[in-house]
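Could you please consider the sequence and fold appended to this message?
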Amino acid sequence: MANDIKTEKLLIKDVFERWFCVPEYQRPYVWGKEEVADLLDDISDALSSRPSSEYFLGSIVFQTKLVKSNNGPDFEEHDLLDGQQRLTTCLLLHAVGRDLATHPQLKESCHKAVFQQENEFDGIPERIRIVYDIRPEVLAFIQKYL
């Protein structure tokens, strides 16, 4: 059913194989240097103190909807209801990794987390992993830097 609530553990690499949309009623991205630094410090501390353990990024709440495709099969998109700041930060970190990586496989892996290439044979549209075109200034930033 469309209103079922499901819980599952998702790895960040699996999260960025999906498509998300930030609904217009959500607040804009407001994290600054301090919040990003706190997240990076927390991840770094967890990696050094518990290298074989998984890191809990936090809960992400989203609502799945079916989107009609213009030139292929319909696809699932997820409206982000909670966790936008963390997921956006992770998306930005993947973009930085893509831009700074010298290893071709790492560069490609980060690129795929940020942007989905079109695959006309599988009906997969070309698009960024998180759509932000609800605010013109955010859309302009995303188009310029991601």
